């Protein structure tokens, strides 16, 4: 029921702010130890691990029957499946490469799903002090003020975020890169106003939510990159789709989000799509 959602949100927000202090402190220091995970472009720092620990410990204490899917727990080999149980989906630092390079576009992402549906989302950039949040049915906010998507309907009037494909080469092979570059070319030919790639899926998404950019499309993601931002985008009026135009699926490792359905459908039609195995399957 909705009083529960308020409580879940408040506890998560307080912990996210504490995590933000860790990120901020580390960001201001000259260097942190960087480890690589699946490849040389897949980074993790001690701060990612510390923030995830803090969030899971705090939320686990407050809500002992809730479940967790966390980026760093998954990287450490923990199996995860999305069930109907209340599940916190956490990315302690989305934009780890930005964090390592001291580019101030990073976000702590804390999302909650109930019956597999994202219902609470917090995307917090502790460097710029931008806190995006939403509870299902109550609107989307940035630092307490309501936000809304843009009303742009045509690609040739849009600024869009895409990934340059670097992460996705891993596991899919070199064909992926050709496809990413070809898709890039097709949007240019279609007359897109501008491309951006902020290096954090969550920041790309909340920038759609606040209407700064008109759409975002990416392949090869994980649920923790997007779960929190999904609620914020939906509450800000965004259309979320699978890039193919099918219904959005949190575990499908891809996303297309736009301010209007018309723009989402145009972008879907322009792109050549790539399929991934769903994550979090038994
Ligand atoms: C990454 C960022 C990036 C996206 C990658 C993600 P991380 O998340 O969201 O924008 O292109 O696919 O893995 O590793 O920094 O949490």
Total count of helical runs of at least 4 residues: 9
Bound molecules: D-MYO-inositol-1-phosphate
* Largest sheet features: 7 strands, mixed
Please write the CATH class name of the largest domain.
Alpha Beta
Beta-strand proportion: 15-25%
CATH names the topology of the largest domain as Fructose-1,6-Bisphosphatase, Chain A, domain 1
- Alpha-carbon Rg, integer: 18 Å
Mean pLDDT: 93
SSE topology string: HEEHEHEHEEEEEEHHEHEHEEH
Low-confidence stretches: none
CATH architecture descriptor of the largest domain: 2-Layer Sandwich
Tally of individual domains: 2
Helix content: 25-40%
How would you name the CATH homologous superfamily of the largest domain? Fructose-1,6-Bisphosphatase, subunit A, domain 1
Shape: globular
How far is it from the N-terminal to the C-terminal residue, by CA? Answer: 29 Å
Alpha-beta content class = alpha+beta
Arrangement of strands in the largest sheet? 3-4-5-6-7-8-9
What is the number of E strands? 14
Descriptive account of the structure:
With 282 residues, this protein is an alpha+beta fold. The protein folds into two domains: 2-146, 2-Layer Sandwich (Fructose-1,6-Bisphosphatase, Chain A, domain 1); 155-270, D-Maltodextrin-Binding Protein, domain 2, CATH 3.40.190. It contains nine helices and 14 strands. It has helices at 2-28, 46-62, 71-75, 96-100, 169-172, 175-189, 201-209, 223-235, 261-270; strands spanning 34-36, 43-45, 67-70, 87-94, 107-114, 117-125, 130-135, 140-142, 145-146, 159-162, 194-196, 215-219, 239-241, 254-258. The strands form three sheets. It has a seven-stranded mixed sheet, with helices on both faces. A hairpin with a 4-residue loop joins strand 7 (130-135) and strand 8 (140-142). Helix 1 (2-28) runs antiparallel to helix 2 and helix 7 runs parallel beside helix 8. The longest helix has 27 residues, at 2-28. It is globular, with a radius of gyration of 18 Å. It starts with a helix and ends in a 12-residue tail after the last helix. The model has no long low-confidence stretch (mean pLDDT 93). Residues 71, 91, 94-96, 163, 167, 199-201, 220-221, 225 line the site of D-MYO-inositol-1-phosphate.
């Amino acid at each position: 029921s909705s009083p529960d959602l308020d409580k879940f949100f408040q506890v998560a927000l307080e912990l996210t702010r504490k995590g933000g202090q860790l990120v901020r402190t580390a960001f201001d220091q000259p260097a942190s130890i960087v480890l690589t995970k699946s490849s040389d472009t897949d980074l993790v720092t001690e701060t990612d691990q510390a923030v995830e620990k803090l969030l899971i410990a705090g939320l686990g204490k407050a809500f002992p029957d809730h479940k967790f899917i966390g980026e760093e727990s998954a990287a450490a080999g923990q199996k995860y499946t999305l069930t109907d149980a209340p599940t916190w989906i956490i990315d302690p630092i989305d934009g780890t490469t930005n964090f390592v390079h001291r580019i101030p576009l990073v976000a702590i992402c804390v999302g909650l799903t109930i019956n597999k549906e994202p219902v609470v989302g917090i995307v917090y950039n502790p460097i710029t002090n931008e806190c995006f949040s939403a509870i299902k049915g109550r609107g989307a906010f940035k630092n307490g003020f309501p936000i809304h998507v843009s009303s742009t309907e045509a690609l040739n009037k849009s600024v869009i975020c895409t990934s340059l494909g670097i992460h996705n080469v891993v596991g899919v092979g070199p064909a992926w890169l050709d496809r990413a570059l070809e898709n890039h070319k097709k949007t240019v030919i279609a007359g897109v106003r501008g491309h951006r790639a902020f290096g954090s899926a969550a920041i790309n998404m909340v920038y759609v939510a606040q209407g700064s950019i008109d759409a975002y499309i990416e392949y090869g993601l994980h649920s923790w990159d997007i779960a929190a931002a999904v609620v914020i985008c939906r509450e800000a009026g965004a259309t979320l789709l699978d890039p193919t135009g099918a219904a959005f699926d949190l575990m499908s490792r891809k996303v297309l989000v736009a301010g209007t359905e018309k723009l989402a459908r145009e972008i879907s039609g322009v792109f050549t799509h790539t399929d991934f195995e769903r994550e979090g399957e038994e």
